[in-house]
Amino acid sequence: MNQKPVVTPLYALEANDLSVVLGGRKVLDIPSLQVLPNEVLVVIGPNGSGKTTFLLTLAALLKPATGTISYRGQAIGSGADMLKLRRRQAVVFQDPLLLNTTVWNNVTLGLRLRGVKGADAEQRTGRWLDRFGIASLAGRQAKTLSGGEAKRASLARAFVLQPEVLFLDEPFTGLDSPTRQSLIADFESVLRETKVTTVMVTHDSNEALALAHRVVVLMHGRIRQTGSPEEVFSYPVDEEVAGFVEVGNVLHGVVDSQGEGLASVNVKGRQVDAVSGLVAGSNVTLFLRQEDVTISLPQSRSAPSSARNQLAGKVDRVLPAGYQMRVTLDCGFPLVALITRRSWEELGLEVGREVTASFKASSVHLIPRQ
Ligand code: ADP
Questions:
Q1: Considering the entire predicted model, what is its pTM?
Q2: DSSP for residue 221
Q3: Of 45, 158, 266, 348, which residue is the least packed, with the fewest Cβ within 10 Å?
Q4: How far does residue 287's CA lie from ligand 1's centre (Å)?
Q5: Contact predicate 45/52, CB 8 Å
Q6: What Å distances lie between residue 278 and 256, 275, 282, 309, 352, CA to CA?
Q7: Roughly how many angstroms between the first and final C-alpha of the chain, as a whole number?
Q8: 53 lines ligand 1 (CB under 6 A)
Q9: Which of 309, 319, 320, 327 is nearest to 363 (CA)?
Q10: Are strands 222-227 and 214-219 parallel, antiparallel or unpaired?
Q11: Does the beta carbon of 47 lie inside 6 Å of ligand 1?
């Protein structure tokens, strides 16, 4: 018997020559974007940059003026395709938009609409309420939920559908910091477990850092930069992107040794000390604010410093940032320091110059990475 070869499409989602016109103005202009299967793609950009428009267009909820969107290699178009497509995707909006009924009903409704009933629906609904820590709220009326609980219900409602592609528009906005952090941590672990292809838009760089495999920076309706979080945050393409993504250094490493609350981390062959109880062998992400990195000349005979980390490096790149200079050093890995223009001048810095980067072990924030 002749068997058709199984061809796995290269991209989960692909957009080409996309443009969107709203109110007579072109608000989105995307020559091309591909989303890989199982990828978590986070689109970041300031307010008004076109993020929501982009997300709605990719999710086929907004018709572009020009361009095509392909879903697993097939261009989206006809009515029949649309229904099939809708059933393979889930969209989470900034406002949870819960119906005026119980949490359980809200989460299970989408399944019923897709013809999933009985024990299967019960089991799936229970599982996702539990996974998002709201099983005890199943019987509560949705309107009585706190902001964080409502967002959890909205995420459970999306995951219960087992979508092939998940779209999220600013899903963590409007929550206080601890609530947000714990929800992001739970969401991250669900993404890791389900490996669902995800497109999320947010104005918050930290969310991209916590979740993205790949980051797209959208500004004025155009893609300005695409890359790993490390690339985008350490090497923004220009001043405007740098100004927007202004976060700290993000590095990956492995804890080599641990002693009295001080972890020694191997980052690309260099040692970085951090105040942390994480044990040897832990894979970690290191966060270090740019303001906490100081630069000195290697031969300087200033008083001994209390900073435990003193790394030799070279000035690799510099971008003006207002009254300050954002200096990217090559220390075997990229390390960004924010220093005043005056320091830059007084130290006589220039690209290629050998320097020492210093920072305290207590300035390095470690989080475990799977
Ligand atoms: P973001 O999600 O990044 O804040 P949006 O996608 O909501 O950005 O908006 C992108 C641009 O399109 C903004 O300049 C906004 O004012 C404009 N816009 C959004 N919706 C409409 C509309 N219905 N009519 C006219 N302009 C719109």
A1: 0.74
A2: T
A3: 348
A4: 33
A5: no
A6: 10, 9, 7, 18, 35
A7: 44
A8: yes
A9: 309
A10: antiparallel
A11: yes
For residue 125 the two structure tokens come to: 């609904």
Distance from the alpha carbon of residue 65 to the mean position of ligand 1, in angstroms: 15
The answer to which of 60-64, 235-239, 287-291, 305-309 has the lowest mean pLDDT is 235-239
116-138 confidence digits (pLDDT tens):
989 999 999 999 999 999 999 99
Closest residue by Cα to atom 13, ligand 1, is 48
Pocket lining: 51 vs ligand 1, CB cutoff 6 Å: yes
- The number of residues in the chain equals 370
* Nearest partner of 41 among 163, 246, 237, 202, judged by Cα: 202
pLDDT at 313 over 70: yes
Whether the CB of 27 sits within 6 Å of ligand 1: yes
Fill in the DSSP letter of residue 268. Answer: T
pLDDT, mean of residues 284-301: 85
Q: Compute the distance from residue 199 Cα to the ligand 1 centre, in Å.
A: 19
Bridging pattern class, strands 40-44 and 214-219: parallel
170 CA: nearest ligand 1 atom: 2
Per-residue pLDDT tens digits for 230-252: 788 767 777 678 778 866 788 88
Question: Nearest 5°: phi and psi at 173?
Answer: -70, 145
Ligand 1 touching residue 21 (CB < 6 A):
no
279: how many CB neighbours lie within 10 A of its CB?
Answer: 11
Q: What is the mean pLDDT of residues 302-313?
A: 84
Residue whose entry in the numeric block shows the structure tokens 């000349």: 297
Q: How far is the CA of 50 from the centre of ligand 1 (A)?
A: 6
* Least confident piece of the model among 149-158, 197-206, 234-243: 234-243
Give the amino acid at 218.
Answer: L
| Whether the CB of 24 sits within 6 Å of ligand 1 | no
Query: Three-state SS for 178?
Result: helix
Query: When comparing pLDDT for 323 and 317, which is higher?
Result: 317
Distance 29 CA to ligand 1 centre (A): 13
Of 29-43, 215-229, 231-245, least confident by mean pLDDT is: 231-245
Instruction: Verify whether ligand 1 is closer than 6 Å to residue 348 (CB atom).
Output: no
> Is residue 300 over pLDDT 70?
no
Q: How far apart are CA 353 and CA 314, in angstroms?
A: 5
